[in-house]
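Support case: arginine complex. Customer-provided input:
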Amino acid sequence: MTKLWAGRTEAETAKLADDFNSSISFDSRMARQDITGSMAHAAMLGAKGIITQDEADALIDGLHTILDDLSSGALHIDPAAEDIHMFVEQVLTERLGDVGKKLHTARSRNDQVALDFRMYLRDEIDELTALTKALAAVVCDKAEEYKAAIMPGYTHLQRAQPITFGHQLMAYAMMLLRDLGRLEDCRRRLNISPIGCCALAGTTYDTDRELEAGKLGFDGICLNSIDGVSDRDFAVELCAALSIEMMHLSRFAEELILWSSWEFQFIELPDAYTTGSSIMPQKKNPDMAELVRGKTGRVYGDLMGILTVLKGLPLAYNKDMQEDKEGVFDACDTAKMCLEVMAGMLPGMKAKTDRMLKAASEGFINATDFADYLVTKGLPFRSAYKISGAMVAKCIREGRTLEDLSLEEYKKASPLIEADIYEAIDLRNCVQKRVSAGGTSVQSVEKQIDTVRDVLNS
Ligand code: ARG
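Agent response - structure generated as follows:
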């Protein structure tokens, strides 16, 4: 088949070269964006008198029909076509004759592919935003359900201080809020139109780039045509934002895996999101959470992939840039799936609050509160810390807890200690007293939930 771009060459390209060169297997995803972009281009050409209004109308009608035929299945994408841009133009020309050949006036595939890619990723960002919001809403609901459920908070994976399960869950909601911010930020920088930059140097035709950009919902135009066709920062930024979001999901997934282990037994994941073992009948495996953790690796890979493709590329367009899409598509697909799975799994997650409380009662996690108690009685914190540490050591030696010690034993450690020590080290009070902003008290967690919900509803 003679290529639309066969200008100076005479011999046919090798079949192997055609296959190697082709990107239709993955860029056909951008068919809708390509056709929509072409409609705006035809309209601009007509409005500026570069082609006649009748020609513009014919092109727009023809493009509409292609879009309809593709969605109804009447038209199939030809896997032998070089890319989606060539395919659409070829079909249009087959259907309309010479008018079809006018569509590519005052543009190049270089600005066309940059346009399509931005439009496609803009739609992806909108979907990712909706899914991230949906997950954050589910996390808020769970946090509300367990806002008073006491569990040990950890540092170094050692029991540290009493917190509530709701508080721990809200930490993940905060991460998701930042993820939303990054998606929004990325969308803002992405939403600038490259169409009209043409091959690299702009065009001699009297085009109206703003008009075309406005029709396609862009906030402005790329101000330098060389940058316009060579910039893929938006794709890198999206992969980076998704890598961070996946890192969050992976940490969350890891905790779900730990908490659902027999060693912790803090939560029970819903049957619908776990699997059994083909050999060990007792097993309930957190496969979905593990896959979320595992798939994080491929999204990081996608980020490294695009950064590496772009590294050292001279300006402006180079064919290397055709390698920009698959990884970014994969990052979007993967993140969307993981967000949906997490949002599907969490509502059915049940906390074993008695196990959590028991674990909280066993690790001396009220030792800080004991020290704080002595501070309220007038001791400097460092001295109070020493006494509390010594009492913990005594309890460990004797196999007891701070709650078990008698008032006499306490008084021996410090005459400042009175009967109200028991109230001070009661786990519920330890949690409730942490009223500092962002802290673990029920009212503070309620405030966090309200704040996140306000952002999600805004
Ligand atoms: N399929 C190409 C890509 O994805 C389209 C742009 C090709 N431009 C060119 N001058 N060869 O990057």
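The radius of gyration is 31 Å.

Case will auto-close in a few days if no follow-up is received.
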